[in-house]
């Protein structure tokens, strides 16, 4: 009889926390090493699709999320002058169809709920731990200190985000994220500051609005039970080399959209401060699991995703839930025995799905940012006239993509994959 596993997770983002919760629930001991001095999420709003709500429900966290969330009614896709070209009902349609709600929340609240749950389950979170190197066969991590020190475990999970040291050590070469030539202005406005009559239409219901123009688009949605409006504006990247986040001039931001829909112009007049974020994604990796089968990647570290489908964190949370569900298929004392097969099944289950999400998110950029001309006219004609079917340009309304994104049932996927592994274990030895 052997003990449960000790798992080190590098990074306490939403993905690392989700993996910690899932793996602890499967009976193992988890330590998260986080470089920051304080826990929390920077940024603003985040959307939680039904596939993530399903995970949160299974973990008993759905009602906690509800207390901080807005339930959007409709998603409207508009031209830059404000004309609504297509609408997808979210509440009640999406919840009725996929069984779980679509939420919009402040990142800090979402992160706090996952952190509290991880700690309640017994996860150790060590702050100010900058991981500098990894020994993949022991396995162990070297943490920056005075002097540096080493921590060993049975399994190491690299959940250290977009600029992942774990990924670069695993590949044994520099592998910076891919430049996409876009940046996002992110801003929050109190709804109590949005009383102008021009905004009445935007305020009637808590809807998500998208506006599309050449090489740029804008979006806004409500969070914190409709008390805060989250605004994201995408424009061509003009940040200096090496700068990925920077506080920015509100006037400069407003000027870029001053010929757009008067509602958007008025909304941007309410913004008091804003930040620019360089947007980057990643290319599909061949492998996520090290050949010694004691190290695996998760979240943005292996599939950084553009935000246009609001799926990056959702995929990271699904990764964590799948890993946890796979470990729960075997007794904690058998964790070492089955670890290689569990990690390879995880990679098989997650790699193609996340690569498709990365690609579809990039495709949505092309649709959003079309220059005025025949392609844009055909896009708008389809949006206005066609009944959504596969390939419909409003990707949230494309029934096949919607099913793929929102209908994902992590526990069912794990049941099927583990069943097939048990019938023929060699199939997992890739
Ligand atoms: C503008 C914008 C809007 C977005 N909107 C959405 C949305 O609506 N819905 C959605 O699902 N996704 C959205 N995303 C994507 C989402 O933010 C990311 O995909 C998600 O946060 C990734 O989570 P993660 O845990 O993998 O990585 P991260 O959140 O980046 O966490 C990584 C953690 O690792 C730590 N770390 C890094 N290096 C080390 C080290 N060497 N040692 C120790 N710790 C380390 C970091 O401090 C950090 O805490 C958006 C992204 C952007 C830019």
What does this protein look like?
This is FAD binding domain containing protein. It comes from Penicillium malachiteum. Residues 6-361 form the FAD-binding domain. This protein is of the alpha/beta class and 430 residues long. The protein folds into 2 domains: 6-177 and 282-421, FAD/NAD(P)-binding domain (3-Layer(bba) Sandwich), CATH 3.50.50.60; 178-281, D-Amino Acid Oxidase, Chain A, domain 2. 37% of the residues lie in helices and 23% in strands. The chain contains 15 helices and 18 strands. The protein has helices spanning 14-25, 50-58, 62-66, 93-98, 107-121, 165-171, 200-203, 250-256, 262-269, 300-303, 312-327, 335-368, 374-385, 399-406, 410-423, and strands at 6-10, 29-33, 45-48, 74-79, 84-89, 103-106, 124-126, 131-135, 140-143, 149-152, 155-158, 178-190, 208-213, 216-223, 228-236, 245-248, 274-281, 295-297. It has an 8-stranded mixed beta sheet. Strands 7-2-1-11-18 form a 5-stranded parallel beta sheet. A 3-stranded antiparallel beta sheet has the order 8-9-10. The chain binds flavin-adenine dinucleotide. Residues 10-16, 33-36, 46-47, 129-131, 159-162, 165, 184, 186, 232, 277, 279, 299-301, 305, 307, 310-314, 316 line the site of flavin-adenine dinucleotide (FAD).
């Amino acid at each position: 009889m052997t003990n449960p596993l000790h798992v080190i997770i590098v990074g306490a983002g939403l993905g690392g926390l989700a993996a910690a919760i899932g793996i602890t629930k499967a009976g193992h001991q988890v330590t998260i090493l986080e470089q920051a001095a304080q826990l929390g999420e920077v940024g603003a709003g985040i959307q939680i699709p039904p596939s993530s709500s399903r995970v949160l429900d299974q973990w008993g966290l759905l009602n906690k999320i509800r207390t901080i969330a807005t339930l959007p009614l409709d998603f409207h896709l508009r031209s830059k002058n404000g004309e609504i070209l297509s609408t997808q009902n979210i509440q009640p349609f999406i919840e009725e169809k996929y069984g779980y709600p679509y939420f919009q929340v402040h990142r800090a609240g979402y992160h706090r709920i996952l952190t509290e749950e991880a700690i309640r389950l017994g996860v150790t979170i060590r702050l100010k731990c900058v991981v500098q190197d990894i020994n993949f066969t022991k396995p162990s991590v070297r943490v920056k200190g005075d002097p540096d020190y080493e921590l060993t475990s049975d399994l190491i999970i690299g959940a250290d985000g977009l600029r992942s040291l774990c990924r670069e050590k695993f590949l044994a070469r520099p592998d910076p994220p891919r430049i996409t030539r876009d940046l996002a202005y992110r801003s929050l406005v109190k709804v109590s500051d949005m009383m102008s009559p021009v905004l009445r239409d935007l305020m009637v219901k808590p809807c998500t609005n998208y506006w599309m123009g050449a090489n740029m688009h804008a979006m806004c949605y409500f969070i914190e039970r409709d008390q805060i409006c989250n605004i994201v504006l995408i424009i061509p990247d003009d940040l200096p080399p090496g700068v990925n986040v920077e506080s920015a001039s509100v006037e400069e931001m407003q000027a870029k959209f001053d010929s757009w829909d008067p509602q958007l112009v008025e909304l941007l007049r309410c913004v008091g401060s804003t930040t620019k974020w360089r947007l980057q994604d990643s290319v599909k990796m061949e492998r996520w699991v090290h050949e010694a089968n004691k190290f695996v990647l998760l979240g943005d570290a292996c599939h950084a995703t553009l935000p246009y489908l609001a799926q990056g964190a959702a995929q990271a949370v699904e990764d964590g839930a799948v890993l946890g569900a796979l470990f729960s298929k075997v007794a904690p004392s058998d964790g070492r025995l089955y670890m290689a097969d569990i990690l390879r099944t995880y990679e098989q289950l997650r790699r193609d799905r996340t690569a498709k999400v990365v690609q579809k998110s990039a495709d949505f950029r092309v649709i959003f940012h079309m220059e005025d001309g025949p392609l844009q006219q055909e896009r708008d004609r389809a949006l206005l006239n066609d009944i959504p079917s596969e390939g419909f340009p409003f990707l949230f309304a494309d029934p096949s993509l919607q099913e793929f994104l929102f209908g994902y049932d992590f526990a069912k996927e794990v049941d099927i994959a583990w069943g097939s592994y048990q019938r023929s274990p060699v199939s997992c030895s890739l």
